[in-house]
């Protein structure tokens, strides 16, 4: 099942599946919007509200795995996970929200007891960064710190923007000495040797401060991005985030505006853009290992990654429990995806 199939990324996942001859059940809350996607593709569809447990249970009957694409996941993840645990259905989503990762990964024992795999972050958040993190950590088992960075082009969807709007109210996050801590957005800057060029990147909250710690055991993790305008954010500017975006009214008005004004990139724009990811780990003795990768546009990457992950879950490739992409499928999972080129780890 693809839940949230009428959203930007959900539609991409559904369309990609149909092109591959797969027959997912499409689902969402709004019958008209879901039907508009399902009928042209000739796919079955179901509509239900996640906050109605009985309806969730009925809709998940006969479903092996749910690809949950309806965000913001801070509101939608928990009820879907609850339903999957009750029904014995594997769960994956495309979240990048740190607190959602923490909440889902905390349900490891419940998932094991239910014989279910829970896999938050099965798309661009956080498959490439997580797999690279595991790759460099394997090369440097003594690593005590990890930097992860990405450079993406090609536009943004309304769902991604709404999650980011929520995130601005929370400020920055980093993993420091094993603990998740709140820090200003932009508290660290560094030059990153991406495959195409060296670029200035700025720290921002990204899901790997949760997932990479689970995948590697490394205690200090900072995530960075090179994005237009991000380099203008400093600690003073970032400190205004919770004040400007934290109120209920600001959140409600901002999300309403995003829903009306933001449209994800079209096929031509996606085809002409891509992503680069960099990982570097270091230890107390001064050893360092880095690796990188290049790939397609983040939304095309996500659709491909989700469908590969579903196939792996249906094949029984992942153990029961709550997992990151690399703990579920290994660090080489990213190599199976379309258009990925890995720059192998190097030590200095």
Task: Tell me about this structure.
This protein is an alpha/beta fold and 348 residues long. 41% of the residues lie in helices and 24% in strands. The protein is built from 15 helices and 16 strands. The chain has helices at 8-19, 31-41, 53-59, 73-87, 98-105, 108-114, 127-139, 158-168, 208-216, 235-238, 241-245, 248-261, 267-271, 298-314, 325-329; strands spanning 2-3, 26-28, 45-47, 65-68, 90-93, 117-119, 145-152, 172-176, 179-183, 189-193, 198-203, 220-226, 274-282, 288-296, 321-322, 341-347. The strands form three sheets. It has a seven-stranded parallel sheet, with helices on both faces. A seven-stranded mixed sheet has the order 10-11-12-7-13-14-16. Helix 5 runs parallel beside helix 9, helix 7 (127-139) packs parallel to helix 9 and helix 8 runs antiparallel to helix 12 (248-261). The model is unreliable at 157-163 (pLDDT under 50).
């Amino acid at each position: 099942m693809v839940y949230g199939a009428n959203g930007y990324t959900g539609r991409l996942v559904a369309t990609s599946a149909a092109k591959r001859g797969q027959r997912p059940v499409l689902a969402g809350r709004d019958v008209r919007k879901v039907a508009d996607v399902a009928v042209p593709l000739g796919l079955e569809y179901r509509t239900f509200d996640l906050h109605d447990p009985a309806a969730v249970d009925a809709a998940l009957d006969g479903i092996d795995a749910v690809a949950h694409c309806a965000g913001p996941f801070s509101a939608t993840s928990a009820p879907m996970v609850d339903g999957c645990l009750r029904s014995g259905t594997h769960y994956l989503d495309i979240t990048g929200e740190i607190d959602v990762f923490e909440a889902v990964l905390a349900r490891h024992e419940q998932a094991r007891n239910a014989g279910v795999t829970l896999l938050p972050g099965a798309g661009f958040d956080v498959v490439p960064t997580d797999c690279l993190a595991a790759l460099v950590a394997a090369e440097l088992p003594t690593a005590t710190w990890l930097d992860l960075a990405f450079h993406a082009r090609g536009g943004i969807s309304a769902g991604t923007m709404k999650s980011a709007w929520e995130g601005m109210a929370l400020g920055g996050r980093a993993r420091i000495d094993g603990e998740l801590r709140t820090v200003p957005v932009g508290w660290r800057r560094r030059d990153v040797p991406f495959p195409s060029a060296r670029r200035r990147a700025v720290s921002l909250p990204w899901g790997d401060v949760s997932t990479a710690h689970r995948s590697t055991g490394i205690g200090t993790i900072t995530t960075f991005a090179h994005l237009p305008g991000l380099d203008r954010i400093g600690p003073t500017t970032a400190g205004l985030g919770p004040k400007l975006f934290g109120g209920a009214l600001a959140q409600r008005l901002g999300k309403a505006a995003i829903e009306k004004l933001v449209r994800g990139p079209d096929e031509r724009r996606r085809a002409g853009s891509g992503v680069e990811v960099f990982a570097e780990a270091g230890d107390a003795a001064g050893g360092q290992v880095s690796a990188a990768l290049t790939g397609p546009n983040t939304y095309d990457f996500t659709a491909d990654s989700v469908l590969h992950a579903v196939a792996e879950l249906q094949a029984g490739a992942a153990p029961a429990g709550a997992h990151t992409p690399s703990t579920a499928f290994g660090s080489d999972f990213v190599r199976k995806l379309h258009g990925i080129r890995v720059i192998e780890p190097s030590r200095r």
